[in-house]
Amino acid sequence: MKIAVVGTGYVGLVTGTCFSETGNHVTCVDINEAKINQMKAGKVPIYEPGLEELFHRNVAEGRLNFTTSLAEGIEGAKVIFLALPTPPGEDGSADLKYILQVANDLGPLLKEYTVIIDKSTVPVGTSELVKEAIAQKAQVPFDVVSNPEFLREGVAVEDFMKPDRVVIGTQSEKAKEVMAKLYAPLVRQGNPIIFMDERSAEMTKYAANAFLATKITFMNEIANLCELVGANVDDIRRGIGTDSRIGKRFLFAGIGYGGSCFPKDVQALAKTSEENNYQFHILDSVMKVNENQKTKLLPQVKNYFNNELVGKTIAIWGLAFKPYTDDIREAPALYNIDALLEAGCSIKAYDPEAMPNVQALLGNSIQFCKNPYEALEDADALMIVTEWPQFRTPDFDKMDSLLKNKVIFDGRNLYELSQMKELGYTYYSIGRQTIQ
Ligand code: NAD
């Protein structure tokens, strides 16, 4: 099948590459000329495990192409994916300007029946708006399908190639047939394609992200309470996660969720509720708790240094909003860096993938280090923000020799309390007793 993917970010590039891997001919369209030129020159613009190999293979075999021209990109395409940004607008609702702009442009370009698939996360009712925008100038029949994406950054290729489920919102039999054919190679193990109407599909995506954000936040609140009552949140996690009704995943307490999806999607769903005169109390709390959770370690840092932070150097391990990605959108690290700089600290940071993105954002206001240990040289304390696996079993002796004080503020609970006690560290973590 000939496919066009409009918007070549984390979702679009993974979608395009994976569908070319299953034998389709895919053209990726993006208005970012630098990005398209980079890809034409054989460079993958984002870090996503497994993506490079697929990208190079399919480019070499002529199934994956790139262009900045929408007209050229959709030439002959039976299906057109929209994988465009839907950032929060000023009032918190999802900003649909990118999607509606492309929908407007698409109308006059369609030459035969085409299925236009919305892969972006969009508020309920958007597929109708997209349909109206295209219909204004379209001369041929078309269908607009809602096909929300559930991939996780960091394991996006795996998630896309073997999805737990595929949700497809359409009431058109013709579109259903095209979609089933397209996804058949990805659900061979029997995972379901769930068909529903467009509005329900749009809502499903928000419900999934809001539920997951709530699950994390619930656990963070349990952690906060654990600190006050002298319980250990890791034990609680094990104790409740083994209940199959609760499940083991998404129960790790930490310094809040970030990323390009949970914060904006929770906010957008709250906005949808508000527009429908419904107060979604849980979402309001989730947003509030997460906001505080992100900088939860700061009072402890201040306390440790007797409120004298001016001139202190803090090493930060991890900048990405989670491991295995270079994405720093809404990353808790950024909030902590801002607050520490404001308090007069210097920052020495290390992240295996996200440093170029942070440097593009913050310039040289913080120091970027070649490895985790360089960040510790002459630092007054270590703060751990992202749970990259390489931070899990560091050389503690080496750390000792580099850090000025044996103190770790761990926002991801990487180490056992007994180990920290034995090593003689002052160790602050989330939802567990402080070791001093
Ligand atoms: P992104 O910002 O990484 O990529 C969007 C791309 O669209 C950019 O490359 C941008 O240049 C391009 N673009 C903007 N306007 C354009 C236009 N008029 N024509 C062509 N290209 C244009 O975004 P993303 O993370 O891939 O997210 C896209 C959508 O998918 C969002 O709605 C998001 O909520 C949703 N989503 C994201 C994830 C994720 O993990 N990132 C997961 C599921 C769903």
TrEMBL record:
<feature type="domain" description="UDP-glucose/GDP-mannose dehydrogenase C-terminal">
    <location>
        <begin position="315"/>
        <end position="417"/>
    </location>
</feature>
<dbReference type="InterPro" id="IPR001732">
    <property type="entry name" value="UDP-Glc/GDP-Man_DH_N"/>
</dbReference>
<keyword id="KW-0560">Oxidoreductase</keyword>
<dbReference type="GO" id="GO:0006065">
    <property type="term" value="P:UDP-glucuronate biosynthetic process"/>
</dbReference>
<feature type="binding site">
    <location>
        <position position="322"/>
    </location>
    <ligand>
        <name>substrate</name>
    </ligand>
</feature>
<dbReference type="InterPro" id="IPR036291">
    <property type="entry name" value="NAD(P)-bd_dom_sf"/>
</dbReference>
<dbReference type="InterPro" id="IPR014026">
    <property type="entry name" value="UDP-Glc/GDP-Man_DH_dimer"/>
</dbReference>
<dbReference type="InterPro" id="IPR036220">
    <property type="entry name" value="UDP-Glc/GDP-Man_DH_C_sf"/>
</dbReference>
<feature type="binding site">
    <location>
        <position position="264"/>
    </location>
    <ligand>
        <name>NAD(+)</name>
    </ligand>
</feature>
<keyword id="KW-0520">NAD</keyword>
<dbReference type="GO" id="GO:0051287">
    <property type="term" value="F:NAD binding"/>
</dbReference>
<feature type="binding site">
    <location>
        <position position="205"/>
    </location>
    <ligand>
        <name>substrate</name>
    </ligand>
</feature>
<feature type="binding site">
    <location>
        <begin position="250"/>
        <end position="254"/>
    </location>
    <ligand>
        <name>substrate</name>
    </ligand>
</feature>
<feature type="binding site">
    <location>
        <position position="30"/>
    </location>
    <ligand>
        <name>NAD(+)</name>
    </ligand>
</feature>
<dbReference type="InterPro" id="IPR017476">
    <property type="entry name" value="UDP-Glc/GDP-Man"/>
</dbReference>
<feature type="binding site">
    <location>
        <position position="329"/>
    </location>
    <ligand>
        <name>NAD(+)</name>
    </ligand>
</feature>
<feature type="binding site">
    <location>
        <begin position="150"/>
        <end position="153"/>
    </location>
    <ligand>
        <name>substrate</name>
    </ligand>
</feature>
<dbReference type="Pfam" id="PF03721">
    <property type="entry name" value="UDPG_MGDP_dh_N"/>
</dbReference>
<comment type="pathway">
    <text>Nucleotide-sugar biosynthesis; UDP-alpha-D-glucuronate biosynthesis; UDP-alpha-D-glucuronate from UDP-alpha-D-glucose: step 1/1.</text>
</comment>
<feature type="binding site">
    <location>
        <position position="258"/>
    </location>
    <ligand>
        <name>substrate</name>
    </ligand>
</feature>
<feature type="binding site">
    <location>
        <position position="153"/>
    </location>
    <ligand>
        <name>NAD(+)</name>
    </ligand>
</feature>
<comment type="similarity">
    <text>Belongs to the UDP-glucose/GDP-mannose dehydrogenase family.</text>
</comment>
<dbReference type="Pfam" id="PF00984">
    <property type="entry name" value="UDPG_MGDP_dh"/>
</dbReference>
<dbReference type="Pfam" id="PF03720">
    <property type="entry name" value="UDPG_MGDP_dh_C"/>
</dbReference>
<protein>
    <recommendedName>
        <fullName>UDP-glucose 6-dehydrogenase</fullName>
        <ecNumber>1.1.1.22</ecNumber>
    </recommendedName>
</protein>
<feature type="active site" description="Nucleophile">
    <location>
        <position position="261"/>
    </location>
</feature>
<feature type="binding site">
    <location>
        <position position="121"/>
    </location>
    <ligand>
        <name>NAD(+)</name>
    </ligand>
</feature>
<dbReference type="InterPro" id="IPR008927">
    <property type="entry name" value="6-PGluconate_DH-like_C_sf"/>
</dbReference>
<dbReference type="InterPro" id="IPR014027">
    <property type="entry name" value="UDP-Glc/GDP-Man_DH_C"/>
</dbReference>
<dbReference type="GO" id="GO:0000271">
    <property type="term" value="P:polysaccharide biosynthetic process"/>
</dbReference>
<dbReference type="GO" id="GO:0003979">
    <property type="term" value="F:UDP-glucose 6-dehydrogenase activity"/>
</dbReference>
<dbReference type="InterPro" id="IPR028357">
    <property type="entry name" value="UDPglc_DH_bac"/>
</dbReference>
<feature type="binding site">
    <location>
        <position position="86"/>
    </location>
    <ligand>
        <name>NAD(+)</name>
    </ligand>
</feature>
<feature type="binding site">
    <location>
        <position position="35"/>
    </location>
    <ligand>
        <name>NAD(+)</name>
    </ligand>
</feature>
